[in-house]
Amino acid sequence: MNDRTASSEPQYNAESRRADLRRADLGLPTATKRWGLALSGGGIRSATFSLGVLQALARAQAPTGGAVEGEQGGEGLGRRLLARFDYLSTVSGGGYIGAFFTSLFIPGRLSQREAGPGDADLHPTQSPRAAAQQAYAVLDYEPPERIHSSADYARGPAGRGPLGWLRENGRYLSPAGGGDLFYVLATTLRNLLSVHFVIGMPLLGLLALMALLKLALGVSLWWLPTVWSGAAVLPLLAAYWLACPRTSQHEPVRLLNPSSLVMTTVCLVLTGSAWGAVAMGWPVSFRLGLAAGSTVLALALVAFVFQALTLPHRPHNNGEDNSVRNYRIQMTRALAQQLMVLLGLLALAGIDSLTQWAFDGMAGLQWTEIAAAGLGPVLIALVRKVAAFSDQKTLPVWVGRLPVGLIAGGVGAAIFVCVAVGWNLLVQWVAAQAIAQSQAVAIGSLAALAFAALLLAFATGRFMGFINLSSLQSFYASRLARAYLGASNGLRFRYAGQRGTPLLSVSDAIKGDDLPLAEFYSAHCAPLHLINVTLNITVDPAEQLIQRDRKGKPLCVAPGIPGNGQGEGVSFILDGVYRQRLAPSLRESELNQPLSLSYWMGTSGAAFTTGLGRATCLGTSLAFGLANIRLGTWWPSAFADRNARGGSLRPGQAPQRRTLSWWASRAFKAQTYLMYELTAHFHGLRREYQYLSDGGHFENTAVYELLRGPRGIELILACDNGCDPSYRFDDLANLIRLARIDQAVELEVDAGIASEAELAPYFATPESFATPIAGPDRRCAVLLNAFSVDEAGARRFQARILVLKPRVIAGLPADVYNYATLKPAFPNESTADQFFNEAQFESYRQLGLHIGQTLFGGSEGHHPVAQALWRYLEKPL
């Protein structure tokens, strides 16, 4: 299977067996079609709308007859439409509510209580089927009420506490209001300053060394880029032309060829002329010019000989390609690297000049320079503010026409310069204080400062867990755990009624809120939950398409293969291929510890971060990184590959040249990975740790994984909740494109449903959604047909895809219409809004519930639209 160490077939077979086992345990028919439910990204907006849809599906009756005939009962579960879905695929905000729903199936989780005297019945032992019955019963409770400390949740209806908890915690990021904002401020400020300290220590050491060099030599730093141009850039530029083939570029490099002989002759002539000019007393400038020219040519010849001799021994070459063509490629790469060094030296010289200007201004109390010193914090605050409202689909059209990446790059560069100048002011102050005594004291002070900074950089670079702890991910994940997984945690509702005050503060963590993945996936009566994230890749010469367009691969977290020996009860499917994991590294680092469910939820919803999948660019990564807007997660995938000898090889263990940069990356490891983030360098499996972010950065509808042929899913119900105020269906278009390219699956809009009188008012084509119609507008769904295409071009029907689209349609409750009037963006308010108040939560929930009941009916026996829909879906294509 590709070049991997394990076949994907056992994974899909295990999923099929688990789906059959689930149906058997619930008393559902096992010989019917596989169904999948997809909850898209969209933050808490998607989570709340999807909650309403889940409630509608839990109450709606499953179709009878045809493919589902022969149900065996199952305590009424077979009559519930929601129970018929074998798969649940989620992305981002859809994962919030999806994780809550799946966790309800864990036996004893919701029913657990701390029993008082005579309350042994509050601590029951629960069977998987009973837990499933309770999970669906939770969604029956209507409406979600307010949480009351006097309510006896232990004996009340199953959904009373969980649904009330979800509603009360719509502001899960700051549940305590103004008081909680100081907690958020403390977390943000600590992490921001810590990041700049860890990054700043090697920078401070380098600036101190530059100041030491400047003081010892008595020259300006502007000489450094000048010297480097003559010592590295110009020689490499000239050396490119020294490989002169006789017949074609595919022949081996010859050391003796017309180009190298001519350059050697010219170099000797210039050298002799320089010595002659000295003897004849010619002007110094002329003599220096001759010497510089001969030195550049001599270095070019050295670079040519070195590259030609070492070319066959380079990694991944194995002596197979010693051609002129390969020589020119390698020489161009070397020149590009030296140009980057030159740019860095120019930046150092510029920072030194700016620092001297600011230092002199501060010494003389010049307010212009003093105000400029505060520009960095202002820019950081501006980036954080703009990022909070950067949902591009809600911004004016003219904003989308701006070169946002270029503007962000300029802002990021300005922040970096301000930060560097700030550290360099410390260097200048130390130098100024010491030089007042003597130059020797100044040299010693700067040397001590450089040594201390580099020592601190080395020490902090050992703690790899810092790169995740310093981001906002841990805060984000913990709040998600308390708000959504806490809603299924029965211990949240203990001591109910007369026994005391329940632990109803989402600001406090209690036992059982978060879950290990193994425990989460142990609930085998739950639908198979697929959590989708994006593995960012921007640097991978083997996959140029990823570099240019996608900049990432889909990573799916799924229930594990029984007995696979990996100990986590979970499988990882990268780009459709099951990946076997090697044993965790023995290094004592939090990065090597298993991620809990809340981290996977938060990572799947890491919309604003330095790695944005196809939207990743240097500008946004630099600006977001320096402002510490980092929600992604570094993760050691430990995926096994085979080396040349047939042994196991984990990511990052491929042979690499032991260059100076390689040794620096080993010495300052934490800073190296932080710089990867800031400079948008994500190497995928070519490094030990991989950068994961929002699954929507690759595909936002969550349908992509459900289309994989081995899963055999024939009906997919998708909630397309991405922010789409113009109803352009961007996420659906992206899904259609990816399915065609990656999986050879064509998705086509079903045109025949428009001829069904009962269904036509509710279904439309994507392009017609934004067009007003006369009379009540009930359009809220799109039906697509999926056809797999084989290599011969033959088409075979694979699945129906029923897409629900949040819209203000006819028949909604009056309070929802009122909210829509007050908030014209409803139901497409910005994804950055993660602070839902009571009216906002109830409006989105009611919208999902109403749309779901409109199409699928309720608990009543006869619903014309639902019956017509099931009849139509059963028609052969």
pLDDT averaged over residues: 85
| Whole-number tally of structural domains | 3
Distance between the termini: 33 Å
Please tally the helical runs, counting DSSP H or I stretches of 4 or more residues: 27
Q: Radius of gyration in whole Å, from Cα?
A: 32 Å
Unreliable residue runs: 1-5, 65-74, 114-118
Write out key terms for the chains shown.
3 domains; 14 strands; disordered N terminus; twelve-stranded mixed sheet; 27 helices; single chain; alpha/beta; 877 residues; two-stranded antiparallel sheet
Chain-wise SSE layout:
Elements: H1 9-26, E1 34-39, H2 43-59, E2 87-91, H3 93-103, H4 128-138, H5 160-168, H6 178-217, H7 223-239, H8 258-280, H9 284-310, H10 324-363, H11 367-373, H12 375-387, H13 397-400, H14 404-435, H15 439-461, H16 466-469, H17 473-485, H18 517-520, E3 528-536, H19 544-550, E4 552-559, E5 570-574, E6 577-578, H20 597-604, H21 618-626, E7 633-635, E8 641-642, E9 648-649, H22 660-667, H23 669-678, E10 690-694, E11 713-719, H24 730-743, E12 745-749, E13 781-789, E14 795-804, H25 814-822, H26 838-856, H27 864-873
Parallel strand pairs: 1-2, 1-11, 2-3, 11-14
Antiparallel strand pairs: 3-4, 3-10, 4-5, 5-6, 7-10, 8-9, 12-13, 13-14
Helix pairs in contact: 2-3, 2-26, 3-20, 6-14, 6-15, 7-9, 7-10, 8-9, 10-11, 10-14, 12-14, 14-15, 14-21, 15-23, 17-20, 25-26
